[in-house]
Q: What sequence folds into this?
């Protein structure tokens, strides 16, 4: 299992361990019966004392965390579709009526977002390993590339330099994000527009949602750390927006490939702030567990979501005290 020893955003080795997660369960995988091989893998969350970026300590093999039973599909989730709709509105506002020659989506999933923004482009390309062994979508209007971004040959697979690159909930899953975003910038057309959405670390801390720390999500970007990454790579920040109805507050950032780097260098979250919010998170879950244990009537859970194993992990329960967990 690979590990991150320096900050993926600024390159500093001033990483501070803020959360130990021994035996953290995997998420997004479904099995007919309990599989000991997928019960838990040691993990940890570190914060860069230089720029405030959060990142996992260990990187689990993608072949494990994105196995054949990995279940997330945008069109199967009303929340994900609403999030993509918000993204499309933000992009349309920034594009201001422009038409793009070549649009590329990194992490295109089942193409919901790419189809949504199709009127903005003449040529559409989606990159996602879920298309590796699947037939191309009908109609021939979208070129799908079934690869991880690290394996993509942008010239050969895309056929030219994109002038619009979008990525929704993808960058946080890329281990060497500086190298891969750098490759994207190099491959893109001059003055290409980028619009990227990531879960906001500020929102996680504000809401004390450390159950949103899991193996697939390697990076925990604040606005400050994202802008620090852009400055390092020489990209020009344009604007940003938070979607507070998605994961408690996702961060959307628009930027351009440009010679002039973003000068911003704001302070990000500190290890002390993370420790304080973590203390509140643990107190909240202790109180919730006590309420469940003290219930003198049948209790049903609602929502067998993909993140349920992590919530159970932090509550030190397997929810066997519930009558059932209901989900459609």
A:
């Amino acid at each position: 299992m690979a590990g991150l020893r320096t900050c993926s955003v600024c390159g500093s080795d001033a990483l501070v361990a803020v959360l130990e997660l021994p035996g953290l369960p995997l998420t997004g995988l479904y099995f007919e019966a309990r599989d000991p091989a997928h019960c838990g893998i040691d993990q940890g969350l570190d914060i860069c004392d230089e720029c405030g970026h959060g990142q996992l300590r260990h990187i689990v093999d993608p072949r494990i965390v994105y196995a054949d039973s990995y279940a997330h599909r945008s069109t199967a989730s009303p929340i994900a579709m609403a999030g993509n709709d918000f993204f499309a509105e933000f992009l349309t506002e920034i594009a201001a009526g422009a038409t793009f020659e070549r649009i590329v989506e990194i992490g295109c999933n089942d193409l919901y977002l790419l189809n949504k923004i199709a009127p903005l482009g003449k040529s559409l390309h989606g990159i996602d390993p879920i298309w590796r062994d699947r037939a191309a979508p009908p109609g021939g209007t979208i070129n799908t590339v079934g690869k991880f971004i690290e394996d993509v040959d942008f010239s050969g697979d895309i056929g030219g330099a994109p002038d619009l690159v979008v990525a929704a909930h993808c960058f946080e899953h890329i281990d060497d994000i500086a190298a891969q975003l750098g490759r994207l910038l190099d491959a893109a057309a001059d003055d290409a527009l980028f619009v990227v959405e990531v879960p906001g670390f500020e929102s996680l801390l504000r809401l004390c949602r450390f159950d949103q720390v899991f193996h697939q999500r390697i990076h925990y970007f604040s606005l400050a750390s994202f802008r620090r990454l852009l400055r390092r790579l020489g990209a020009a920040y344009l604007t940003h927006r938070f979607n507070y109805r998605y994961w408690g507050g996702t961060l959307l950032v628009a930027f351009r490939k440009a010679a002039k780097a973003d000068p911003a260098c704001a302070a990000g979250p500190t290890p002390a702030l993370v420790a304080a919010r973590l203390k509140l998170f643990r107190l909240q879950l202790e109180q919730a567990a006590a309420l469940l244990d003290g219930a003198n009537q049948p209790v049903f859970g609602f929502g067998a979501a993909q993140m349920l194993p992590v919530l159970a992990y932090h509550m030190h329960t397997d929810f066997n005290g519930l009558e059932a967990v209901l989900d459609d």
